[in-house]
Known about the structure:
Helices cover about 45% and strands about 15% of the residues. The protein is built from 17 helices and 13 strands. It has helices at about 25-35, 40-45, 60-75, 80-90, 90-95, 105-115, 120-130, 160-180, 195-215, 275-285, 305-310, 370-375, 400-410, 410-420, 425-435, 445-485, 490-500; strands at about 140-150, 155-160, 220, 230, 235-250, 260-265, 295, 315, 335-340, 345, 350-360, 365-370, 390-395. Strands 1, 4, 5, 6, 7 and 8 form a six-stranded mixed beta sheet that branches. A five-stranded antiparallel beta sheet has the order 9-10-11-12-13, with no helix packed on it. The chain has a two-stranded antiparallel sheet with strand order 2-3. The chain is globular, with a radius of gyration of 31 Å.
Amino acid sequence: MPMRPLSREQTWLLPPTLDELIPNDHPARFVAAFVDSIDSNMWLEMGIELDGDPLGAPAYHPRGLLSVWLYGFMTGTRSSRKLEAACRDQIPYLWLTGWQHPDHNTLLRFYREHRNSMRRLFKHTVSTAINMGLVDLALQAIDGTKIEASASRHRTYNRVELQRLLEKTEAAIKDLEEQNEVGNDPPPAYLPKELAQTQRLRAEVKSAMKKLATEGEEQVNLSDGDAKLMKGSNGIIAGYNMQAVVSPVTIEDDDTSSLLITGVDVVQNAGDTEQLLPMLEQAEEVTGQRSEVSLADAGYHSGKNLEGCEQRNQKVIMPECYEQGLHKPYHKDCFKYDVDSDSYWCPEGQKLRFVRSKLTRRLWKRQYRASGSICQVCRAFGTCTQNKKGRIVEIGPYDTALRRHRELMATKEAQEMFSLRKQLPEPVFGIIKEQMRFRRFLTRGWANVKAEATMIATAFNLRTLHKAWKRQTTQDLFSCLSEALCQAKHCVWTNNYLSQIKLSPCQT
Length: 508
């Protein structure tokens, strides 16, 4: 087949405008429209002045800087230096900035000053989706994922290891100082690089030792003192536990599934149990209403959480960690309680009387015991219990809530609902990590990491909103085309074309 001519000296017949190089449905256009829709009150809530100072050199407009950061998070570019390069050679960034080129210091200062207040943008994305009628708030799911910190796990030390490191550092500093002694000559204007680095390490070690002493921690990371060792998908990492609440989104004439993050947080605990109620409360605060059904995995299961959800009148579907034990024939749920005598009856018809109250793991539990002589001659001895003093049943303060939840999870409706859980948060984390390249925090410190996670959640929601905006833009484009062709008396051709693309035929 013939080849197309190739010339790297091709010139424009007419110079195009920057606007012509960006398609109408491009994500950059949506980001600009979203930022332009922010009212003055919201700018003030974020601590950003749009008017600027009449004195001094002109500053870059906050709308342009915010657009660059939002579009960067959407496309996986979160480094200020990479954004600076993009603002010089990538057309979407050039369009967003109006052909201006902010340097990385300008971008970084803007982000540092306002990242903690940008949580307002996250709420704005959720409220926008709700106002557009896209979100199904009847169902939501919560899950967590481990994100690596901007720190190596090998820089995590305990008290003994810090003391050894401090002794080695002190010895190294003494040796370097002796090597740099110059007799009667004046000292150098600057410390040698190796000595300066060693002194900085000593300061970091002393600061870490002070933190362990004051906060009662067992380990501390020298790079990011707030990061904790936890098990991630690729082994032990120094990182954080990112939590998210996700709701399904319905976009008209779109067969693919879409999702929206309605709650996001970062915690230092590797476990998820304590995060259920705070995340449900946050999602309710962000959306303005309580979801009818919430889905969670077994990592969130606890009697305290179930009782808290009952008090909130919130239905939660989640399995138990040790679900296999529930199917044993002599599980304590198989024992029947007698209110009048305050006792339990085992499946073999033997009575367990109240013995005492016992404090276990900060919870008071009531103990009921059967007769040892009866248990030893029972046919279930060895299966039900091996204690010659008799079977013991401990009843905690949350046992009633646990039993009610087990009855709920045994229903077909609950099992069908729980099967939807994997379709909600897990795809969100997959998109964030793979498509948006968010596998590692770039900032350090718990507060900064929380702000970075909120920005990535905002960017994810903007991707979902862009999908709906893109379809609406396409619909509007075809509607304008239909009207123009009708006026040109081409209604027959227009109606045939619109019927093929599933739009309403023109009635002119």
